Amino acid sequence: MSETTDKEKKPPLNGRRALPSNNSNEEENEVPEMEAFGLIPRGFNPKDYLRVVDIHMFKEPHEINKQQHHTDKYYNPKLIVRRGQAFQIQVDFNRPYSPETDQFWLEYLIGRYPQQNKGTYIPILVRDVLKPGEWGAKITHKENNSVRLSIMSSATCIIGKFRLYVAVLTPFGILRTHRNAATDTYILFNPWCQQDAVYLDDEKEREEYVLNDVGIVFHGNINDIKLRSWSYGQFEENILDACLFLMDKAELELSGRGNPIKICRVASAVINSRDDNGVIAGSWDNTYTNGVPPSAWTGSVDILLEYYSSKQPVRYGQCWVFAGVFNTFLRCLGIPARLITNYSSAHDNNANLQLDFFLDDEGKVDTTTTKDSVWNYHCWNEAWMTRPDLPVGFGGWQVVDGTPQETSDGMYRCGPASVQAIKHGHVCFQFDAPFVYAEVNSDIVYLRRAKNGTQVIENIDTTHVGQLIVTKEVGRDGMMEITEEYKFQEGSEEERLALETAVMYGVKKQTIQDTSYQPQTDVDMEFQVQKAVLGSDFKVTITFRNKSRNIYTATAYLSGNIVFYTGVTKNEFKKHSFNAKLEPYSSSAFDVVIKSSEYLSDLLDQASFHFFVTARINETGKILATQKATVLEIPALRIKTQGAMVAGKEMSVTVEFTNPLKQTLENVVLRLEGPGVLRTMKKEFRQIPMNSTLIWEVKCIPNRPGLRKLIASLNCDALRHVYGELNVQIQKP
């Protein structure tokens, strides 16, 4: 009898997997406390070996871990840390730990079927050094029977609640600590960690978009803007567990939960109840029977806790409720997020980038045939992340929308769609960019059906949709307009060019005989960016090749943007429009000079630029569009050594650097380190005048022979990511 019940408990396997899918953080597996290597000899007593007596997690809000990881606000007794950053624990043994004879390691597990290659089973051996952004542990302190450990988690680690075991090796098997919920560790996204996909470089923005637990919703309409506060409550009791439950509910494979793109995509579906019994049931018909009217909610906490306990959709929500709860979810997990309002928001049913309003004979809108609509306002969210799945330049703010409007890949969800891609009309990049582009940019086309059945265009309104896009100010309660993040100036040349680019990428071919899009095949456009060293002027050359016998004129626009090395745009530093005359059968080149004064003040760490060039051939109305990223050359540090390089003997290292900028560098910090050669050393220089060279000499005594590396870096406000390195061969004495 016991055998059959045991069999029934096993989940059904399908033919494609060796293991069932591992998509619940809640479920656990049994972990053996004694894992024998074979037969255990008589007289084996586990108590004879190193044994764990207690584990201290330093998990109180005032203790080191929650303070350093910005998780002290969470109302949760367990340890909460952010990935890619070290945290501390202490293990007490039954006797002093002796590294020569004792061996122990840590194991972090998540879900029911932990596997090392999926990142759901993580064994961590104790090592001498921690590598940034990779799993590891090292002993920082030993006293009596206790060992203090510093543990580094991977910067791409799964987000969720992990179980911790300490394993000790004995000659006959592995002894593990028993299951102890008090040592469970939550690992969240880390916007403070440069290697994390959600890294945000501005502390004030991190405080607003990750740590602020209240916000403002702008509503009303374009002529009468109203605002209200919303409590996100991402740190309240049980909210973190409720947010993790949402990913279980969405059946997101645990191995995908380190990826903010995947998390946003599934969350945008599970926030609404359509097709998956998600969190909030929407209602727009003014009848809210057996539920709370959307306008009555003041925050997200009640909604999330009710859903977490009942597992049934909470009634009712409209766009700002979906957006408010979504914002709580994102901030709670550590993804920077903000709530956006778009006034006069288009709802384009067939994503043809225009709203088709059909008029009847009297000129009124025919409600039976008109399927598109314009909302007074619509709220969605932006989440901040890199987009390694897209070309460089499209990271940064991404639109995600939990309000059910249209299906995407068969479910009611929307995003993440790059705001930068939407602005420039590059709507070919996933996910759902054409839909969002239409929400802020659509032209309203008024059509009338003539007697013979053809459609006659009566009027086109190009300015109504997406007149104002706003969010809450950073650190204050005012309104910040971000319309220009999404679109160029209404009626400007660039705006039309972006629209025509979007049409080129986004229009669905309705039928074969329909006027499907014909690109301009007889003119080519490309551009080259001159290689340049940081601090100098350089030029961008745009070349048109007219392969036809016609004379054409082109209206062209160049946009230069400063981007993070991850491809996230910071801001536009160069706008340049020009007209070009293209003679038959010839090439024409146009230079745009980029002055150092235009980019230096905004330059980011990695000195990366991203250029868009868009042109319209005026005679045909056809669009040519292209974009590329480019990086300035950053001058390197030079490292030299003098004297014999022998372990145990003094040697000398010099670091040199010449200031390439047309300005004095101030408060420059140099660092030099070389594992096995010298401990990290720091030196500050108050000023380095332009064109002058600094020389820093250091004496050191290398202690380990072999091939070693010296690494130096220079940092100041005006210049970052200046590095130098040198391999050195240290001889045996």
TrEMBL record:
<dbReference type="InterPro" id="IPR038765">
    <property type="entry name" value="Papain-like_cys_pep_sf"/>
</dbReference>
<feature type="active site">
    <location>
        <position position="378"/>
    </location>
</feature>
<feature type="binding site">
    <location>
        <position position="495"/>
    </location>
    <ligand>
        <name>Ca(2+)</name>
    </ligand>
</feature>
<keyword id="KW-0356">Hemostasis</keyword>
<dbReference type="Pfam" id="PF00927">
    <property type="entry name" value="Transglut_C"/>
</dbReference>
<keyword id="KW-0012">Acyltransferase</keyword>
<dbReference type="Pfam" id="PF00868">
    <property type="entry name" value="Transglut_N"/>
</dbReference>
<dbReference type="InterPro" id="IPR013808">
    <property type="entry name" value="Transglutaminase_AS"/>
</dbReference>
<keyword id="KW-0964">Secreted</keyword>
<dbReference type="InterPro" id="IPR014756">
    <property type="entry name" value="Ig_E-set"/>
</dbReference>
<dbReference type="InterPro" id="IPR036238">
    <property type="entry name" value="Transglutaminase_C_sf"/>
</dbReference>
<dbReference type="InterPro" id="IPR002931">
    <property type="entry name" value="Transglutaminase-like"/>
</dbReference>
<dbReference type="GO" id="GO:0003810">
    <property type="term" value="F:protein-glutamine gamma-glutamyltransferase activity"/>
</dbReference>
<feature type="active site">
    <location>
        <position position="319"/>
    </location>
</feature>
<dbReference type="InterPro" id="IPR050779">
    <property type="entry name" value="Transglutaminase"/>
</dbReference>
<dbReference type="Pfam" id="PF01841">
    <property type="entry name" value="Transglut_core"/>
</dbReference>
<keyword id="KW-0479">Metal-binding</keyword>
<dbReference type="GO" id="GO:0005576">
    <property type="term" value="C:extracellular region"/>
</dbReference>
<feature type="binding site">
    <location>
        <position position="490"/>
    </location>
    <ligand>
        <name>Ca(2+)</name>
    </ligand>
</feature>
<keyword id="KW-0094">Blood coagulation</keyword>
<comment type="subunit">
    <text>Tetramer of two A chains (F13A1) and two B (F13B) chains.</text>
</comment>
<dbReference type="InterPro" id="IPR008958">
    <property type="entry name" value="Transglutaminase_C"/>
</dbReference>
<dbReference type="GO" id="GO:0046872">
    <property type="term" value="F:metal ion binding"/>
</dbReference>
<dbReference type="InterPro" id="IPR001102">
    <property type="entry name" value="Transglutaminase_N"/>
</dbReference>
<dbReference type="InterPro" id="IPR036985">
    <property type="entry name" value="Transglutaminase-like_sf"/>
</dbReference>
<dbReference type="GO" id="GO:0005737">
    <property type="term" value="C:cytoplasm"/>
</dbReference>
<feature type="active site">
    <location>
        <position position="401"/>
    </location>
</feature>
<protein>
    <recommendedName>
        <fullName>Coagulation factor XIII A chain</fullName>
        <ecNumber>2.3.2.13</ecNumber>
    </recommendedName>
</protein>
<feature type="compositionally biased region" description="Basic and acidic residues">
    <location>
        <begin position="1"/>
        <end position="11"/>
    </location>
</feature>
<feature type="binding site">
    <location>
        <position position="441"/>
    </location>
    <ligand>
        <name>Ca(2+)</name>
    </ligand>
</feature>
<keyword id="KW-0808">Transferase</keyword>
<dbReference type="InterPro" id="IPR013783">
    <property type="entry name" value="Ig-like_fold"/>
</dbReference>
<dbReference type="GO" id="GO:0072378">
    <property type="term" value="P:blood coagulation, fibrin clot formation"/>
</dbReference>
<keyword id="KW-0007">Acetylation</keyword>
<keyword id="KW-0865">Zymogen</keyword>
<keyword id="KW-0963">Cytoplasm</keyword>
<feature type="binding site">
    <location>
        <position position="443"/>
    </location>
    <ligand>
        <name>Ca(2+)</name>
    </ligand>
</feature>
<keyword id="KW-0106">Calcium</keyword>
<comment type="similarity">
    <text>Belongs to the transglutaminase superfamily. Transglutaminase family.</text>
</comment>
<dbReference type="InterPro" id="IPR023608">
    <property type="entry name" value="Transglutaminase_animal"/>
</dbReference>
<comment type="function">
    <text>Factor XIII is activated by thrombin and calcium ion to a transglutaminase that catalyzes the formation of gamma-glutamyl-epsilon-lysine cross-links between fibrin chains, thus stabilizing the fibrin clot. Also cross-link alpha-2-plasmin inhibitor, or fibronectin, to the alpha chains of fibrin.</text>
</comment>
<feature type="region of interest" description="Disordered">
    <location>
        <begin position="1"/>
        <end position="31"/>
    </location>
</feature>
